Amino acid sequence: MSVFVLKFNEIDREDIGLVGGKGANLGEMTRAGFPVPNGFCVTAQAYREMVKFNGFDSKIREMLDGVEVKDSDKLQRAADRIMKMVSKADIPDEMAESIIRHYRSLSSKTKNPLVAVRSSATAEDLPEASFAGQQSTFLDIKGEAAVIQAVRDAWASLFTARAIFYRETNGFDHFQVALAVPVQLMVASEVSGNMFTINPVNNDKRIIVIEAIWGLGEMIVQGTYTPDHYEVRRDDMTIYAREINEQKKELTRKNGVNKEYPLPKWKVGRQKLEDDLIVKLAEIGEKLHSHYRFPQDIEWAMEGGKLYVVQTRPITTMEAVERQSEMSLKEESSLRLLVKGDAASPGVAWGRPVVLKSAKEISKIKEGDVLVAEMTTPDFVPAMKRAVAIVTNSGGQTSHAAIVSRELGVPAVVGSKDGTKVLKKEKLITVNGTTGEVFAGKPKEQDLKYTKRDIGAGLVETATKVYVNLGEPELASSVAQKNVDGVGLLRAEFMMAQIGKHPKKMLRDGKRKEYVRSLAVGLAQFASSFGSRPVVYRASDFKTNEYQNLIGGKDFERPEPNPMLGYRGALRYITDEQVFEMELEAIKMVRDKLGYKNLWLMIPFVHEPNELLKVKRIVAANGLSRSSSFKLWMMVEIPSNVILLEEFAKAGIDGISIGSNDLTMLTLGVDRDNEDVAGAYDERNPAVLWMLETAIKKAVKLGLTASLCGQAASQYPDLVEKLVRWGITSVSVSPDAVERTREIVAQAEKRVIGGK
């Protein structure tokens, strides 16, 4: 007896042959209690019955006979003829009546609910045979006749040009593959997106990746919008990283039509999903991962604050990602950077860039070219198979371009913003899909390194935290993807230089709010990118000669004989509170109004404890008080900081950060920037080592965290081992030294624990 229609709660994962991978997973999740919208599945048996009833078998064979799938034009013409025929198919009465009966029973509120009609091929969504966006989905279908027609159109989509191409190139017989059609209640998505229960770009099993956009989720797969990107640690469900991207339009239903509408201004740059919902969604992902005992690629939607899972399938790109891990670019390569986007598919490749305006131009791509486009759709797949690398202007790690690139084993960069404009001028480019960078020209052999990563081994772990030194907001999101525990030194000076004008000139010109807002925007970029990881902002430490270089600087700064030992750091804050208060207001805005509680404060160049007390009073008067989420650190860069550390601790601080560069200069009396005496500068000098050891051991005894920022931690493994033995809690290094330093720290910790 043929079964034409089954409710989701009548299906489980063993029914792939009957309802396809998508249908089987919807049934499995429903029966397991996951939040799946109510629905039913028109089975593969129904499809086969329809083909037999209409005599389509021989007709389809005839239409495909002799078609060369690499000839895009001929393939498209054959596909159009088949689809037109199937979309007008006669449906047996018994089958049509069963579909209508199940449709009417979906909702107790209305006989004609809005539904999504999806496609689920019996060879689709299997670990060895998956491809993004092969068959069609129809949204907001309403009424019995419309549902029946949408089922026909879903069947017809089994014969799109891309689906025919895929089956031919992957060895699937067109007539052994059938199509089931899941029909489920529409979620009027306020926010929607995708989730991976491991990082799909590098197979890191410790991270859950979530991407989100406003409105319906079709645009995230198409890559039309670049989504928000959130990363959550699987072990403790803390938000590890986030990147907020502007979205100016959303696909939503109004007046009975799905259409793109402009977003109100307040939503354009806003985080799409609140933190508590990010964590709740990650928890659902973790449960699905555990239920299936395999990493999952999940589609989700939110309506009225409630999260729904509308699809899950195994992640199919893990082996391809592993194969791509052998060749990479050295960080110090000689290549010139052209554009930067998001890493979507790892590996390095180079070739002639070819910009495609639409899928109609895919014949332009030849073997060995780099495909560059605004975004890709499933119609681009034949060209994607010929390309050595892919670059798109928009899209995220869950866009069509990203998923298919990983499936093909092709390096890809998505979200490059203006890649189509910049790259069309180049004759040869290199795409680094591991870092999201695109360079001019071809790498030389010395630019490349060959390593076989231990995929699945996860991140190198150390008890000593490895932080990063940063100043440029535009680097925050990419550096946050590294194996780094936070920002140990966020320099104010770069952001102030970008503003370009002396802060006192801004005050004099009545532009206080503008200055505060500019600082806050930069700080928010760091805080949002690093999620729950701390971002330690070092208040401004411009010297007078550096302030003089800003517009208006000469009006407010007097020349000094030795700026390094002059009017800087804490002394400035006490003498001229107004400028310092603008920084504090920016911090408060980011923490209180924007909700990024991971932003802390560090005070540099404090001469003596009473100076610190005065600075603290200003901080408190501006509404910032030490708490579990707001730590106050002090830079240790003057010998008096080490000698009087007990007194500084009594003034009230949570931690210290040793500025090894200044502390070495001031301990040895050597200017490292003066080539005549620079040879005497050495962080391993016994006097400097005494300072480091004393500061760290005192901090441990006083219950303070102790960090070290500077080049020493990445340059001298023997020094790192000493720091670990003395009890250092963190080191903070430049972005290019993060991985190297983590390895050095890990080895040092092993030797210390082993007593060697």
Automatic annotation (TrEMBL):
SUPFAM superfamilies reported in the protein's UniProt record: Glutathione synthetase ATP-binding domain-like (SSF56059), Phosphoenolpyruvate/pyruvate domain (SSF51621), Phosphohistidine domain (SSF52009)
Under catalytic activity, the entry for this protein gives:
pyruvate + ATP + H2O = phosphoenolpyruvate + AMP + phosphate + 2 H(+)
Q: Which GO terms of type biological process are on file?
A: gluconeogenesis
Tell me which domain of life the UniProt entry assigns to the organism this sequence originates from. Answer: Bacteria
GO MF term set: ATP binding; metal ion binding; pyruvate, water dikinase activity
Q: Establish whether keyword Lyase is in the entry.
A: no
Q: What class of enzyme is it?
A: transferase
- What EC number(s) does its UniProt record assign? 2.7.9.2
Pyruvate phosphate dikinase AMP/ATP-binding domain residues are 18-330
Limits of the PEP-utilising enzyme mobile domain: 365-436
* Chain coiled-coil ranges: none
One Pfam family per UniProt? PPDK_N
Keywords tagged on the record: ATP-binding, Kinase, Magnesium, Metal-binding, Nucleotide-binding, Pyruvate, Transferase
Write out the pathway annotation from the protein's UniProt entry. Carbohydrate biosynthesis; gluconeogenesis
Where does the record place the PEP-utilising enzyme C-terminal domain? Answer: 462-749
Q: Which Gene3D superfamilies does the entry link to?
A: ATP-grasp fold, A domain (3.30.1490.20), ATP-grasp fold, B domain (3.30.470.20), Phosphoenolpyruvate-binding domains (3.20.20.60), Phosphohistidine domain (3.50.30.10)
Q: What does this protein do?
A: Catalyzes the phosphorylation of pyruvate to phosphoenolpyruvate.
Q: Identify its protein family.
A: Belongs to the PEP-utilizing enzyme family.
Identify this protein by name: Phosphoenolpyruvate synthase
Q: Which organism is it from?
A: Candidatus Chazhemtobacterium aquaticus
